[in-house]
Amino acid sequence: MATVLFPPFQARIVKDKTGEEILVRQYDHEKDREALIEMYVNYDPDYRCLGLPPLTRSGVETWIDYLAKNGFAIVAEKNGKIIGHLVIVPDDRNRVDLTIFVHQNYQNRGLGQEMMKLIIEYCKKAGFDGITLVTERTNSRAIHVYKKLGFEIVAPYHEFDMYLSLKK
């Protein structure tokens, strides 16, 4: 895994499909850790993907600590609560692996897509060559959004490996 110095992320207010304004900002592990754990502890297990997020509080803690140590994250915040989490972890090929979760109460409102657009822009400015992600082949809503944003399926097996080239 590559060591990367991530540039700062400019916080933005985005509007979801209902017109609600939601703050998307850089995750601060020291300040936001408990709020992020809270989001995942209250995450409906039916919305999990590829075994994530972990089911137990200790599993969530270990997972987000790993992500904070090895990657860069943004969060969506509404009324002081974290409702979305997107993290990128660099690899040794100047690409990043992306993981995103939006709390079930805020899904299907375009928030995940807005967060994805912001991180794609961020990754381009940071000089990464591409973004990879993996999703379940049955996650048709997410696959639709990823394709809409330019991702292509590069390995259509048990799950779908998808890739977005940033070299254009």
Walkthrough of the structure:
The chain is of the alpha+beta class. The protein contains 4 helices and 8 strands, in the order E-E-H-H-E-E-E-H-E-H-E-E. Helix 1 runs antiparallel to helix 2 (57-70). The longest helix has 16 residues, at 111-126. The model has no long low-confidence stretch (mean pLDDT 94). It holds the Pfam family Acetyltransf_1.
CATH class (first level) name: Alpha Beta
- The radius of gyration over CA amounts to 15 Å
Q: What is the approximate shape?
A: globular
Q: Major β-sheet, in short?
A: 8 strands, mixed
Class of secondary structure makeup:
alpha+beta
Low-confidence stretches: none
Keywords: Acyltransferase, Transferase
Organism: Archaeoglobus fulgidus
Protein name: GNAT family N-acetyltransferase
Domain N-acetyltransferase: 22-168
Could you provide a short overview of the structure?
This protein has 168 residues and is of the alpha+beta class.
What is the element layout, followed by pairings?
Blueprint: E1 12-15, E2 21-26, H1 29-41, H2 57-70, E3 72-78, E4 81-90, E5 95-102, H3 111-126, E6 130-136, H4 140-148, E7 152-156, E8 159-165
Parallel strand pairs: 5-6
Antiparallel strand pairs: 1-2, 2-3, 3-4, 4-5, 6-8, 7-8
Helix pairs in contact: 1-2
Task: State the main characteristics.
single chain; 168 residues; alpha+beta; Aminopeptidase; 4 helices; globular; transferase; acyltransferase activity, transferring groups other than amino-acyl groups; acyltransferase
